[in-house]
Amino acid sequence: MTEVSMFSVLQHRILDSKLAGPVDMAVREPLYGAKRYIKGHTLGEGTYGVVFKAIDKVTNRTLAVKKIRLGKYKEGVNVTALREIKLLKELHDPHIIELVDVYPHKRNLHLVFEFMESDLEAVIKDRNIFLSAADYKSYMQMTLKGLAVCHKKWILHRDLKPNNLLLGSNGQLKLADFGLARIFGSPNRRFTHQVFARWYRAPELLFGSKQYGPGVDVWAVACIFAELILRRPFLQGSSDIDQLGKIFAAFGTPGEAQWPDMTCLPDYVEYQYSPPQSFRSLFPQASEDCLDLLQRMFTYDPKQRITAQQALEHRYFRTEPAPTPPHMLRRPSKPEAQPKPIEVPSPARHIPLSPPTKTRRIQLFGGDIKTAGEANRDAQVKQQQPELGTPTDAITIPMSIDPKTNLRPTLNR
């Protein structure tokens, strides 16, 4: 079946299943597709198209429409869009974005979603908002509820980050952007490891694993959890190697006893040992239960890492303070109303977040250098590489947790 014919089937199924809502048959025909919606202002723009605000003429409901450009020269419908449509049809939950309608118009594919006011990244960045322990507990609970539903349906999200966690006018948090999501469960199925923005990428992905499961989503949620507590991205690597260095500087360099399968991963390289920092020093304001949950979510071995459902059942969510009800969570300021960003001292300023400079050792095997695909680092290694078969020395690369916020990475950098 071609992509275009697949889209036609999906479109008819969506209409048959009444994703467009309860519309009277007398008015449904003249208000089909683009005719049904009043286009508003643009909300954002991405690689494949734009998102704009719209009003449903029938229900008067405010919606968000993602317009996806179809491929040139009859290439057909974007495969990412087809996957997103297919998977969102399987996911119906208060903590997952609702796909309302799908329609083609002027060689563009339009996905109609419920309208969400903001996202979690805006909350984290808004210095007018004070996040209490009950507040970030509430955000984490809603995130894990949505993720647990995905994993129960055997779906990996693979692109969890604060700006993909959307917030409604009632404070409800919902998982969005399922363009990279995939079905998992087959033991022989292989995936790309180039998923997630780098700061939220699990160590098994940074080591090139192509066979992974829901643990990669849990690691990303742990990074978001840490970001909520610290009010800044937790581990800000500038490359895959640097990202691993920052992970090891925080949690210590893992050994085979701690992560038995690590040395078998495609892009594994040996790092010099770095002792772990205590979670209390990394998150001094967090409760003991909070630290215990973070530690279980940041477990190196994905087989031992806590699941989303197990995290929801953790005692952290049963102890005081209770999660803030969503409608009581403070909403971020409008972009034009936000004050100029200011530097806020880290809550951990009395305990250094940047440990003494560590070193990382790359083992060279007969001239074959495994460096997680980082071309710039390859050049540095080759300059120091000796003749084939001769002993090699350690290559020094700084490893630290830098509290200074860098440019937020996208999927491809």
UniProtKB/TrEMBL annotation:
Start and end residues of each Protein kinase domain: 37-317
Gene3D superfamilies: Phosphorylase Kinase, domain 1, Transferase(Phosphotransferase) domain 1
Catalytic activity: L-threonyl-[protein] + ATP = O-phospho-L-threonyl-[protein] + ADP + H(+); [DNA-directed RNA polymerase] + ATP = phospho-[DNA-directed RNA polymerase] + ADP + H(+); L-seryl-[protein] + ATP = O-phospho-L-seryl-[protein] + ADP + H(+)
Alphabetized SMART domains for the sequence: S_TKc
GO cellular component: cytoplasm; transcription factor TFIIK complex
UniProt GO BP: positive regulation of transcription by RNA polymerase II
Pfam families: Pkinase
PANTHER family assigned: CELL DIVISION PROTEIN KINASE, CYCLIN-DEPENDENT KINASE 7
Name assigned to this protein: Protein kinase domain-containing protein
Species per Swiss-Prot/TrEMBL record: Ceratodon purpureus (Fire moss)
Higher taxonomy: Eukaryota, Viridiplantae, Streptophyta, Embryophyta, Bryophyta
